[in-house]
Amino acid sequence: MNELLHSLDWVLPLRSETLTPVMRFFTLLGYEKFILFFLPLGYWAWHRSVFLRLLVLVAVTALLNAWLKDYWQDPRPDLALRMDHEVGDSFGLPSGHAQIAVVIWFWLAFELRRAWAWVVSGVVVAGIIFSRLYLGAHDVEDVLGGSLLGIATLLAFAQVQHWNWWREAHGLWHLALILLVFLAGWLTWPGVAPSYVPLLAGLMVGVLFGYRRMEFSVDVAVWRRLLAAAVGALSFILLQKALKLAGTAWALDPQLWQGLRGLLMGLFVAAVMPWTLVRLGLLKPVDKPEAEALAGSAA
């Protein structure tokens, strides 16, 4: 059993010049660069309440994944087997790619409630999980643990959505509870908490504030939604470059800067960019009664 969970000898014969680029593509779908790009695009051009829930879910499960990594401190496969060198010296169990892939793609399939969505999600999740084994970044135990934790997170989050007190509570209570989870993680962290803990906490504050303050609808022509996504994507890239320059220029405490950076990103995603896209006529403004109806359906 130990050999099955930790050995990657069976992967090596599968590697080829044809399959390697495919696996690199799938593994890219699980990295922070893609996720932080994909979630805002969905928020602006697809369904803001669905992607708000997804963003909260991803942030919480990412926190759990990082905490458990540092708690178990399980080493990754031997460096000689590794084809993905972006993981640095981080630990292996549970696999963040597997855990977050299960959460993102299966939650979207759950929200869509379409057979084709489950099929597509299953293919993407399987591709991401296998890519981590293929590239030597994780062993079977890592991806199995990440997958099971992703499923557990999904089941818990789906159950929370059925709680009347949660659905009817003011947004400030939602924010307070989410920040309490992050604070608990920070205070109990096994070692030094990584910088993305305040980043995610700041992101949550900015997004939830913007969600309540800036309502909009994507009930517009498809070309307008696609153009909104393109404008938003370009603006988001420029924001990241500006924040990188600001982080270099400002001599702030690293943890404080990450929290501020997350806050600015959250406000940009949920307030600044939607306001801009509405003013450009690419998204539809929502009046107060309609906004309240949308907020009720999002709970």
Describe the structure.
The protein has helices at residues 2-6, 19-28, 32-45, 48-72, 96-112, 115-134, 140-160, 164-168, 171-187, 196-213, 222-249, 254-279, 288-298, and strands at residues 216-217, 284-285. With 299 residues, it is mainly alpha-helical. Residues 289-299 have low confidence and may be disordered. The termini are far apart. 73% of the residues lie in helices and 1% in strands. The radius of gyration is 20 Å and the shape is globular. It has a two-stranded antiparallel sheet with strand order 1-2. α3 (32-45) packs across α11 (222-249) and α11 packs antiparallel against α12. The longest helix is centred in the last third of the chain and has 28 residues, at 222-249. The protein is built from 13 helices and two strands, in the order ααααααααααβααβα. The chain has two domains: 1-162, no CATH class; 169-299, no CATH class. GO terms for molecular function: undecaprenyl-diphosphatase activity. Pfam families: PAP2. It is an enzyme of class 3 (hydrolase). Residues 52-158 form the Phosphatidic acid phosphatase type 2/haloperoxidase domain. Its EC number is 3.6.1.27.
